[in-house]
Description:
The structure is a homotetramer.
Chain A: E1 5-7, E2 11-18, H1 21-29, H2 38-50, E3 61-69, H3 70-76, E4 83-86, E5 97-99, E6 108-110, E7 117-119, H4 123-149, H5 154-157, E8 166-174, H6 175-185, H7 199-213, H8 217-225
Parallel strand pairs in A: 1-5
Antiparallel strand pairs in A: 2-3, 3-8, 4-8, 6-7
Amino acid sequence: MTKTEFRSTMTVELIDHMGSDESIARSARVSSGTSGTEEQNVGLLRMLMRDRHGSPFESVTYQFRIECPIFVAREFFRHRIASYNEVSGRYKVLAPVFYVPDPDRPLMQIGKPGAYRFEPGDNVQKAVTVRAHIRAAETAWDYYETLLASGVAREVARNVLPVSLYTSFYVTLNLRSLFNFLSLRWAHEDSKVPTFPLKEIEAVAKDMDRLAREVCPVAFEHFDNHGRVAP
Amino acid sequence: MTKTEFRSTMTVELIDHMGSDESIARSARVSSGTSGTEEQNVGLLRMLMRDRHGSPFESVTYQFRIECPIFVAREFFRHRIASYNEVSGRYKVLAPVFYVPDPDRPLMQIGKPGAYRFEPGDNVQKAVTVRAHIRAAETAWDYYETLLASGVAREVARNVLPVSLYTSFYVTLNLRSLFNFLSLRWAHEDSKVPTFPLKEIEAVAKDMDRLAREVCPVAFEHFDNHGRVAP
Amino acid sequence: MTKTEFRSTMTVELIDHMGSDESIARSARVSSGTSGTEEQNVGLLRMLMRDRHGSPFESVTYQFRIECPIFVAREFFRHRIASYNEVSGRYKVLAPVFYVPDPDRPLMQIGKPGAYRFEPGDNVQKAVTVRAHIRAAETAWDYYETLLASGVAREVARNVLPVSLYTSFYVTLNLRSLFNFLSLRWAHEDSKVPTFPLKEIEAVAKDMDRLAREVCPVAFEHFDNHGRVAP
Amino acid sequence: MTKTEFRSTMTVELIDHMGSDESIARSARVSSGTSGTEEQNVGLLRMLMRDRHGSPFESVTYQFRIECPIFVAREFFRHRIASYNEVSGRYKVLAPVFYVPDPDRPLMQIGKPGAYRFEPGDNVQKAVTVRAHIRAAETAWDYYETLLASGVAREVARNVLPVSLYTSFYVTLNLRSLFNFLSLRWAHEDSKVPTFPLKEIEAVAKDMDRLAREVCPVAFEHFDNHGRVAP
Lengths: 231, 231, 231, 231
């Protein structure tokens, strides 16, 4: 039996990008036919963000490669203004890499939908959680290998695998769509609108924010300053 | 322990719809400012389909409710010109309903990606497949219940569940997007472009086709006659 | 020469619709697997609007027929999450119906982009405005007819016509996309985010709001109460 | 009065781009987890195009700047899977640049919608066409300037201008959306599906094709070889 591997982290790589703060300003300025200095562009981008002139932010595009568990990818793919290519369990024998919560992952959910609080969980809960993730994954992987060894098609065998299995995909999206993703998937202290993201997708969002921010730092600064609501 | 349930079928219900063959014709005729008899509309819809004038087909919209395994929903949600609301494992204790292939499900995959053929599989393969699906599901469900009983959050506990678990969702989409879905997810004998859908999503596509067809039979007839390519 | 006609008003007809407040609630409740009374649905829709759970609002769809000048249609068609079918100057001899501002249309623009104020304009400005609209339209129409009479193709002849010419189109869109349209195209007193729409598209937005509101009054009430920002 | 200017040409500039043939291959290969040589990528892209695996082509994005008459922009903006920023007649005093057909522009339209043929037109038709375009533009521009001189708002004054007026805009779109645009807006000899584009937008499409092709020549070669249908 192939040895299973367990991870708690997500992988986010910036593969490619197009555009910059300057592209956003240039696209916006076509409407008025003006040009501006770098300093004036800062003010222009602030105004675009404040008044929800969102279309110039679509001039910046990114491609990322993401590794995360299926249960995270399931939430990610609900964002429709983006392009996806993902590992296929039909075309490929999958790799035995599974998610297990790290000790800092809050385990207790208190309150009602829309207003959950999370608390760490005690040592018994931590132990049960880690054990269940590992055993469920190992058992499932064992069945998966058995099915493949019996000559059963990959697309049937993979049905037994849990949503904690890691998948990987490329996502291409523009900055406006990324801002929308970040506004919903990161409960940032600057967020004006409350959001309750799953911790694991929040980890992905944080990495995307950090990498994408370098491409157009002024746009991100205004995003932060205007409550992290997508324009 | 709650008793697990196993199914091989998909559920597709047509919840609501808007428009008809007549709506498609009316939307198309605005461009030329003409009106037409029912018989002339048949010819008009044929021409729209043949010449890929797709936008009038967006006048018809549907809402469906679907029950299917997560591995099917994962493929479904890749269709971005549609609206989705799905059961959430964060908000709800999930129900122990799992997929198991029925005896007719082909189990052997032969050939290369893009040109797979499928064959039934022998009795050993059938037995191994059913057993693996059932045992993997039961084991996972056992861990899920243990985690919940220990007070672990639903959104953490569900990680151990397999992609064979049934989910349910509402999908709202227009006829043009539906045609695209059907062209890719049903290897219909009238299809001009070859496609290799997963059997389980093909079952969903067939039901959607049957229900949607009653709303605008002429549009569907031309879709069949023009190779089942979305206009 | 065909007699030209001048209008100041817009036409907005609700042709068809799908769904209701109940549909929105039903789509939202699939996530938690609950059901609720009509009164509980009111609270649910409030929560969806407040917390920007936008997808359930996509369960309601509308088809409208609009008559407006080309310069209004040009702004309307920038809304991409919608389906359009419009009169074609290539396929049809156009009708000589043109826009002229009515006496209440503010004519003076004061201030800077992003912060314009408008004032009525004096009697000279009103007279010049009406005269210019009428004469420009009549002159253009004369050239259009001359070109057609000379056997020149409709698609070439129409180039001489002004953007004040009326066009008509069908638009199909869902409630979430409509809320976004309304948030940008009507400077409503309840709007939390400032917007500076063109008066003529604002007239269209007001009519769409009035007609669409009857289909799902609870959703619209919460839209108003939450600053008319699309969820 | 400002001197009016007349053009028959379109301007298409490639401002920025992301990705390459290699990006398309890399995105596609994530599904099977394989890698390949440059030569194998050529075969892979062929297969993607043939079997309509369209999503990897969304890994390549472009930004163009376009100058064209309003009647061309009106058709262009019907392509919704793209991002636009355009000159605004509300924010800017427009420039007096107008379209006039060049001597090669076919002027006679023969046949029915969906099956038009075009013929050159005789010398009288050519003269009438040029004269009507010039006179209509000059008259309209005269009214526009009179209105501005009277202190009437730009957004009102521009109503008198014809759709032959040049506009300019930035458009950002991915390769898959571009292929769809090209399939509909260029009646290319390799096109498998008949299309009847307006000559003036066809000129834009040809320039976009030429510039975009350099970024990913293999993808474009397969597009040509597979009937110029978007995957």
